[in-house]
């Protein structure tokens, strides 16, 4: 069956674009070489995650992969042409630069600024320099679950939830992970799976607009 890109990212086959982005963000940070010095397995995993995201984030590649698997994606599949008869699609070849996938994904938000400055001073411009400030994109929502007792749902209550998110540093270019307490008012009689939205409580970055934080009960 070949490589299962969905499994690599911890996803099901019906994953949405938001799911794909959220899981690549999570696992690329977890397995990044800067956090796993001299760990060959983490480096291999980081590379595999980059290839998986490169395929699943592209609609055409994803469509071919979903229908024909890794073999069809990389070897090509028949393509009907009215004039020339039957032709074949060009096989996909991953460019092999996992760091480029990582940089392109985070845009101007570089969670490993010091690391990249050490290995290549020019990279700092692509993470928050003039090029990175020209356009902003909104991050997908971050979903979290809050577990309540039946009594709390029946009578209502106020719950506190600690969340971790990336917050911009004073230099305006780099960010760091900080905790924040959200006060959640649970209304009397709310049903299970009710969702509360906290606007702009997602990760911050010089080139990103924070997404919503979605709390489901």
From TrEMBL:
Keyword Repeat attributed: no
Region annotation (Disordered) ranges: 195-217
GO process terms (BP): protein folding
Gene Ontology MF: a single term: unfolded protein binding
A cellular-component GO term for this protein: cytosol
Pfam family for this entry, one: DnaJ_C
Stored InterPro entries: DnaJ_C (IPR002939), DnaJ_domain (IPR001623), DnaJ_domain_CS (IPR018253), DnaJ_subfamily_B (IPR051339), HSP40/DnaJ_pept-bd (IPR008971), J_dom_sf (IPR036869)
Gene3D superfamilies: DnaJ domain (1.10.287.110), Urease metallochaperone UreE, N-terminal domain (2.60.260.20)
Transmembrane segments: none
Keywords: Chaperone
Ranges of residues in domain J: 4-69
Entry protein name: DNAJB13
Species: Acanthosepion pharaonis (Pharaoh cuttlefish)
Higher taxonomy: Eukaryota, Metazoa, Spiralia, Lophotrochozoa, Mollusca
């Amino acid at each position: 069956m070949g490589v299962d890109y969905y499994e690599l990212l911890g996803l099901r086959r019906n994953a949405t674009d938001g799911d794909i982005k959220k899981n690549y963000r999570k696992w690329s940070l977890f397995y990044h070489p800067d956090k796993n010095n001299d760990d060959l397995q983490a480096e291999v995993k980081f590379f595999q995650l980059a290839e998986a995201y490169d395929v699943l984030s592209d609609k055409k590649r994803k469509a071919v992969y979903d229908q024909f698997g890794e073999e069809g994606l990389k070897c090509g599949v028949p393509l009907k042409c009215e004039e020339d008869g039957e032709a074949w699609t060009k096989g996909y070849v991953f460019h092999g630069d996992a760091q480029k996938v990582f940089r392109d994904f985070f845009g101007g938000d570089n969670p490993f600024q010091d690391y990249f400055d050490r290995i290549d001073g020019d990279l700092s411009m692509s993470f928050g320099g003039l090029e990175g400030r020209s356009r902003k994109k909104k991050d997908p929502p971050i979903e979290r679950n809050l577990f309540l007792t039946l009594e709390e749902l029946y009578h209502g209550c106020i719950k506190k939830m600690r969340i971790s998110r990336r917050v911009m540093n004073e230099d305006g270019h780099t960010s760091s992970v900080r905790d924040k307490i959200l006060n959640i008012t649970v209304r009397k009689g709310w049903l299970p799976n009710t969702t509360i939205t906290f606007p702009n409580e997602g990760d911050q970055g010089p080139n990103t607009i924070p997404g919503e934080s979605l709390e489901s009960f």
